[in-house]
Amino acid sequence: MRPQELGAVGRGLGLLADTWTLLILQRAFLGVSRYAGWRETLNISDATLSARLRGLVDAGLLEPRSYADGGRERRGYALTERGGDIWKLLICTWDWEKTWVPREVPLPEIVHRDCGRPTRVRVCCAACGRAVGPRDTEVEREPGAPGLDLLARRHPRRTRGTLPVDPLSFLPGAMEIIGDRWGAAVLGAALAGIRAFTCFAHELGISPEVLSDRLRRFVALGVLSRSGDGEYRLTDKGRASFPIHACLVEWSHRWCGGDGAPIDLTIRHRACGQPLCVRLDCEQCGRAFARDSVTPPPSG
After folding, report:
1. Span 13-50, pLDDT tens digits
2. Could you give the CA distance from residue 286 to residue 131 in angstroms, rounded to a whole number?
3. What angle do CA 249, 255, 261 make, to 5 degrees?
4. Which of 167, 205, 280, 285 could make an SS bond with 289 (beta carbons 3.0 to 4.6 A apart)?
């Protein structure tokens, strides 16, 4: 292993756990492919949008595509295979927000095209087919694997900014748990069984100030509760975020591990003993989702 190298999951966090990155990718799935389309639907500044698009192209998640506009050639963007493979992460994020975060304008239903019905998402182990949740798994850190202490230096904290008012992109709960790198890392550690402040700090290499802020946010959001002994325990709402983190880990293994980053942690399904490969099933008909079998929320 090369010195000063983030592991696969650390790299995945650095790439994906950012609010604007996720919202840009979400809109790409909804058909947005032009600069003006993102700027208008997300109400994002030119500087922020330009920086994120450059980063997504550099990371291989988007690729430039030329198109004709009134006789002039302009540049648009398209999802690559690598970028398109985050579809499970986006669906689980959408499902969690719709289920657990009250809102004035409800999010559209997830519709499974194969059966034609609105549905919730059932998370299963692809190896054995059983439904799986955080209590059915264990997290294994590879011996000698790099920690997350490099995350802040490699990926400095970005300003959260103001979420778009467009109801399709207004995901305040989900962006707290996956739209921030340290927030995603803290909640992932909680899902792995960590409860004490000192254990979070030791495991993640996170500063006390940042850790205190994220724990406070999660208690306010209702995904963690603080017990009388000062420990932080997952609520039902917090445990329900497990699919989001499982999909992030799986994507990181496939694409960051495939690029040569060392595997730093693995989620293992206790029942079958296999590393968890996420399969998303339709609760209505029981069949597995494919990327093109789930109707995306309408763009207008």
Report:
1. 999 999 999 999 999 998 999 999 999 999 899 999 99
2. 11
3. 85
4. 280
Spatial distance between the Cα atoms of 120 and 129, rounded to a whole number of angstroms: 17
The structure tokens listed for 158 are: 């970005």
> How far is it, in rounded angstroms, from Cα 57 to Cα 259?
16
Write the DSSP symbol of residue 283.
T
Q: Which residue has the tokens 């968890």?
A: 276
Write out the E strands in 238-300: 265-269, 278-282, 294-295
Q: Please give the Cα distance from 62 to 34 (Å, whole number).
A: 12
**Lowest mean pLDDT, pick from 45-54, 159-168, 176-185, 289-298:** 159-168
- Using DSSP, how many helices (H) and how many strands (E) does the chain show? 13, 11
**How many Å apart are CA 9 and CA 171, to the nearest integer?**
23
Q: Are strands 117-119 and 265-269 parallel, antiparallel or unpaired?
A: unpaired
Please provide residue 278's backbone torsions phi and psi, each rounded to the nearest 5 degrees. -80, 130
Give the DSSP H/E element, type plus range, for residue 86.
none
Pairing of strands 224-226, 232-234: antiparallel
